[in-house]
Design a protein that fits this description.
binds alpha-L-arabinofuranose; EC 3.2.1.55; 9 helices; 6-stranded antiparallel beta sheet; alpha/beta; non-reducing end alpha-L-arabinofuranosidase; CenC_carb-bd; Jelly Rolls; GH; hydrolase; Immunoglobulin-like
C-alpha cells in the first residue's frame, strides 16, 4: 500500500462522522430522556391513564378519573382526581414507568407533583418508590395541600437498586385530591442539567467525538399523517405544557410490541440543540417538507393556499384544515431564528427565555426526510428559496428518497444538483456484502457542487426491517470496509451517520441499532466501535492510497483509506482485513516528513463474524490498543484475521 503523503487531497469536513438520532425504540422517553413517569400529565388522548393503574385491592378507593375542571393550563387540561370514601393506604395510583423505572441505590431522584385538595380531609400524599415485587425502596410525604394548584417537590433516595421499579401515590386521609404533572427525575443528569439527559447514554455519544447530531429523525419527522408530523414549536418552552403526540413507531408486532409509544417532548428542540452543544456536534435539525410519510399515506400540504381550486386541487388525501406549505416554510424560518436570532427577535427571545442567551450557531437545516418524486421537489424548491433569501449562509440538507439506486432517486439527485443543493441525504440499509461491494460507490461522483450526506446506513444481517437482524461483527466490519470508501471520497461525502442510534432491549421496533440499553445499563455494539474508531480518528486532510499492481480498494478483501492529522502531526491509516487469515501489510508513506519512532494501533477484531455484544458481555467485540515500531517510511504491520485497524503514525506531510 502506498499512502501519498506528498499528494494531499481536500480537507476532511469537520462534520464528516456524526450521529443520527430518532425517537424510535424508546430512544427519547424511556431512554435518553430520563423522566421515569410515563404520561405524567394525563394528556394522552387515546387513554388518559396510559401508564397508570389504580392500586390493587383498593376497596376504599371510590374512583379515580381524569377530567377537565380548572386545569393547570389550557394545554395541560387533564388531571387525575383521587377520591377515597375512607382513609386507606390503598387509595391511589401506580405508575409503571417505561418498562419499569431504573432506580439506583442511594442516587437522588426529585419527585414533584402539582396537587390541590377537594372536599373531605385529605392532608397530603404518600409517595413510595418500590421494586417490581412491591418492596419499598424509599418513601416520602407531600403535605399541606390547599384548594389551589401548587407544585410540591421532595428528593428521594432508594435503599436498593431496581431495574424495574415503580411509583406509588396514595392519599393521606379520606376525601378528594387532584394531581397532575407527576415527575420522578434523576438528579444525576448529564452536566447536572434540570430536565437533563441520561448520563451514561450521553457519555457514549460524547466519547465518539461526533461532528454533527441529526434530529429528530427519521420517519418521525413526517408522521404517519400530516396531523401526526413532528412540530418543533410544540416541543419548546415550559416542559409541563408540552402536549404528547402518538409516536410514529407506536406499533404492535411480535417481539417488539410498543402500543404505548408516545412522545412527551420533554426532550424537545431546545434540548436537542443543548445536547449538540454539550457533545460538540453541529446541530442538524430535519423538518417536515409538507408531506406525510410516503410509506404510510399520501397526505401533502397544498403548495398554494388556494389548493382546493388551484393546480394542487385533489392532490393527496388532504383535509380542509391541513396547513399549506407556507406554514411549513415559516416553521423553518422561525427555527433558524429560534436557534440563531437575537433576544430582540420573537423566536430568539424564546430561546433566551429558556436559558440560552447565546445563539446555537445553527449552520444546517434538513428539508424532508427520505422523500422522493416530483411532489418532494415541488415542495423543496420554494422552501429552499425562502431560506436562502433570508439566511443565505445556512446549508440545506435535501432528501432524494430511500432507494439510492432507483430511477426516482437519480432524477431527484439530478434536479437537486441543478438547484445547487448543498447536501443530499442518501440512505442505505442492505446486506453486509452490499457494503463491501459498494465501497467504490462515490468514486465517480462529481467533486464539485452538491455534497453527500450518508445520513442513514446500517448492514442488515437478515433483511431490512427484520426483527431478527443482529449487530453482528460481520455487519460492523462490512460497514468499516464501506467507510474506507467514504473517507477516500471525503471531497464528496461531508457527513455520515449510522442509523438508528438507540434501542431499549425491551421496547424496540427496528434492528440493528448502534447502542442498546435497559433501564440501568447500556452498551455499544461492534458497529458503535467502528463508528467511534472513525469519528475519533477523522484527520484533517485526505491522502490518496494506492494498492500494489493497481488493485482496487476492497479487491481481495483488503480495504484501506488514509488521512493526515495536521493538528497532531500524524498519518492515520485505516485498514480492514475481511479474511480469516492474518495479513502482513507494507505501507509506504511516500514523502512523509518528521517520522516518529512508534505508532499506535487500535484494533477491532473477532474470529467469529456472528459475534455480538450484549448487556452481559458489553465488550465482547471492542477495540484494543497496542504500539508498534516505526523504523522507516516503509511501515510494516500484520493485520489480525477479520479485523478493522486504525494506525496512527507520527509523521507530517
Ligand atoms: O432508521 C429507521 C428509519 O429508516 C428512519 O426513520 C427512516 O428515515 C428510514 O426509513
Amino acid at each position: 500500500i502506498t499512502v501519498q503523503v506528498n499528494k494531499p487531497g481536500a480537507p476532511i469536513a469537520k462534520t464528516m462522522y456524526g450521529l443520527f438520532f430518532e425517537d424510535i425504540n424508546f430512544a427519547a422517553d424511556g431512554g435518553l430522556y430520563p423522566e421515569l413517569v410515563k404520561n405524567k400529565s394525563f394528556e394522552i388522548a387515546d387513554n388518559y391513564l396510559t401508564g397508570w393503574k389504580g392500586i390493587n385491592g383498593a376497596a376504599a378507593l371510590k374512583t379515580y378519573t381524569v377530567i377537565s375542571d380548572r386545569p393547570i393550563s389550557a394545554t395541560n387540561n387533564h388531571f387525575a382526581r383521587l377520591t377515597a370514601a375512607t382513609a386507606s393506604p390503598d387509595a391511589g395510583l401506580i405508575n409503571e414507568g417505561f418498562r419499569g423505572m431504573g432506580l439506583k441505590q442511594n442516587d437522588e431522584y426529585t419527585f414533584s407533583v402539582y396537587a390541590r385538595r377537594g372536599p373531605g380531609n385529605v392532608t397530603g400524599l404518600t409517595v413510595t418508590l418500590e421494586d417490581e415485587k412491591g418492596k419499598m425502596l424509599a418513601q416520602s410525604q407531600v403535605s399541606g395541600l390547599t384548594n389551589e394548584w401548587k407544585k410540591y417537590s421532595v428528593v428521594m433516595k432508594p435503599s436498593a437498586t431496581a431495574a424495574k421499579g415503580q411509583l406509588r401515590l396514595a392519599l393521606n386521609g379520606a376525601g378528594t385530591a387532584d394531581i397532575d404533572v407527576i415527575s420522578l427525575f434523576p438528579k444525576d443528569t448529564y452536566k447536572n442539567r434540570e430536565n437533563g439527559l441520561r448520563t451514561d447514554l450521553v457519555q457514549l455519544l460524547k466519547d465518539m467525538n461526533p461532528g454533527f447530531l441529526r434530529f429528530p429523525g427519521g420517519c418521525i419527522v413526517e408522521g404517519r399523517t400530516l396531523n401526526e408530523r413532528y412540530q418543533w414549536k410544540e416541543t419548546i418552552g415550559d416542559v409541563a405544557s408540552r402536549v404528547p403526540l402518538i409516536n410514529r413507531w407506536n406499533m404492535e408486532f411480535k417481539h417488539r410490541s410498543t402500543p404505548d409509544y408516545y412522545q412527551s417532548f420533554g426532550l424537545g428542540f431546545f434540548e436537542y440543540f443543548q445536547l449538540s452543544e454539550d457533545i460538540g456536534a453541529e446541530p442538524v435539525p430535519i423538518l417536515n417538507v409538507g408531506m406525510a410519510c410516503q410509506f404510510n399515506s399520501a397526505e401533502l400540504a397544498p403548495t398554494t393556499s388556494t389548493a382546493t381550486s388551484g393546480p394542487n386541487a385533489g392532490e393527496g388525501h388532504n383535509h380542509a384544515d391541513d396547513p399549506t406549505l407556507d406554514t411549513f416554510i415559516q416553521d423553518a424560518l422561525d427555527l433558524i431564528e429560534f436557534a440563531n436570532g437575537p433576544a430582540s427577535s420573537p423566536w430568539g427571545a424564546k430561546r433566551v427565555a429558556m436559558g440560552h442567551a447565546a445563539p446555537f450557531n445553527l449552520k444546517f437545516i434538513g428539508i424532508g426526510n427520505e422523500q422522493w418524486g416530483p411532489q418532494y421537489l415541488e415542495r423543496y424548491e420554494p422552501f429552499m428559496k425562502a431560506i436562502k433569501a433570508k439566511y443565505p449562509t445556512i446549508n440545506i440538507v435535501s432528501s432524494a428518497g430511500p432507494s439510492p439506486d432507483g430511477e426516482l432517486f437519480d432524477k431527484a439527485s439530478k434536479r437537486l444538483r441543478e438547484l445547487k443543493a448543498e447536501v443530499i441525504d442518501e440512505h442505505y440499509y442492505a446486506k453486509p456484502d452490499w457494503f463491501r461491494q459498494n465501497v467504490g460507490r462515490y468514486d465517480n461522483y462529481p467533486t464539485t457542487g452538491t455534497k453527500i450526506f450518508a445520513g442513514e446506513y446500517a448492514a442488515q444481517s437478515v433483511a431490512i426491517g427484520s426483527p431478527d437482524n443482529k449487530n453482528s461483527w460481520d455487519c460492523a466490519i462490512s460497514e468499516a470496509a464501506f467507510m474506507t470508501g467514504l473517507e477516500r471520497n471525503a471531497d464528496k461525502v461531508v457527513m455520515a451517520s449510522y442509523a438508528p442510534l438507540f434501542a431499549h432491549v425491551e421496547a424496540w421496533q427496528w434492528t440493528p441499532d448502534m447502542i442498546w440499553f435497559d433501564n440501568l445499563k447500556a452498551y455499544g455494539t461492534p458497529n458503535y466501535y467502528v463508528q467511534k474508531m472513525y469519528s475519533t480518528n477523522p484527520g484533517t486532510t485526505m491522502l490518496p492510497v494506492q494498492r500494489a499492481g493497481n488493485a482496487k480498494n476492497g479487491q481481495d478483501n483488503l480495504f484501506s483509506s488514509a488521512v493526515a492529522d495536521d493538528k497532531t502531526g500524524e498519518i492515520i491509516v485505516k485498514l480492514v482485513n475481511y479474511s480469516t487469515e492474518a495479513r502482513p501489510v507494507a505501507i509506504n508513506l511516500q514523502g512523509v516528513k518528521k517520522l516518529g519512532k512508534a505508532g499506535k494501533a487500535t484494533v477491532l477484531a473477532s474470529n467469529d463474524l456472528n459475534a455480538v455484544n450484549t448487556l452481559e458481555q458489553p465488550t465482547n467485540v471492542a477495540p484494543k490498543e497496542e504500539s508498534f515500531k516505526v523504523s522507516s517510511s516503509n511501515v510494516t504491520y500484520t493485520l489480525a484475521p477479520n479485523s478493522f485497524t486504525v494506525l496512527r503514525i507520527p509523521g507530517k506531510r
